[in-house]
Amino acid sequence: MSATVMDGTALAAKVKEQVRAQVETMERKPGLAVILVGDNPASRVYVNGKKRDCAQCGIYSEEYALPEETSQEQLLGLIDELNRREDIDGILCQLPLPKHLDEEAALLAIRPDKDVDCFHPYNVGRLMIGAPGFRPCTPAGVMRMLEEYHIDPAGKHCVIVGRSNIVGKPQAMLMLQKNATVTICHTKTKDLKAECLRSDILVAAAGRTGLITADMVPEGAVVIDVAMNRNAAGKLCGDVDFAPAAEKASFITPVPGGVGPMTRAMLMENTLLASRNHGKA
Fold this sequence. Notes:
By secondary structure, the protein is α/β, with parallel strands linked by helices. It has 2 domains: about 30-120, Rossmann fold; about 135-260, NAD(P)-binding Rossmann-like Domain (Rossmann fold). The protein is about 40% helix and about 15% strand. It contains 10 helices and 11 strands. The chain has helices spanning about 10-25, 40-55, 70-85, 105-110, 120-130, 135-150, 170-175, 190-195, 240-245, 260-275; strands spanning about 5, 30-35, 60-65, 90-95, 155-160, 180-185, 200-205, 220-225, 230, 235, 250. The strands form 3 sheets. A 6-stranded parallel β-sheet has the order 1-11-8-7-5-6. Strands 3-2-4 form a 3-stranded parallel β-sheet, with helices on both faces. Strands 9-10 form a two-stranded antiparallel ribbon. A hairpin with a 5-residue loop joins strand 9 (about 230) and strand 10. Helix 2 (about 40-55) packs across helix 10 (about 260-275) and helix 6 (about 135-150) crosses helix 7.
């Protein structure tokens, strides 16, 4: 078997075009503010990508590039100012922050109705109980990819390798909402291979290059690689040993070009949702 490679780049372009078409009909455009503290090169790449996405979708965006030595008081003051602005519907504080800053305090300071990353406990709680609202961008992107490729999680066994608050835990909730049976594993799971071999849908999100080898992939499984790692040669890769795994899987996502572009596309959807919730039309 040779897997169908799931094209996240093409699907992200489709999603962003759908957002753009809706924004084009609006008299008051959605607004997104992105806060970047310090000069983390990876964060700069992500922020630049988000700015391009906003431009493509017709979403108004502002960037606040703050120096490394920014104080907690200054950061919280900026967030408070953005919370009060009616033209800003979403606020994104790019992580990681410099070590002297309290990330939790910064994320808690963002108004839940502007928390387009879905990090605030209020929005996480709504996700947990299945209430309408924002969905974390990466897990939401995974679900959209499954939908696009007509893969229904209902009744399937989904094994998620990774337990982060950003991907693993919310991914489990979204799979449960689609009636999958979910097992959450991690790097401390006693027999990770045995657990993976029970999967119909295998989501790798541990952040360890080569963690998922081909002998851990069941024949015909759907393999979703969420991780973004660098191998010894500096090449971007995921957790899954892609080429051998693709010979056993029915569907598989590449890295790059898989879930990554969808994460940014779902941010655009969340920003549009926030603006609708704020009465913009």
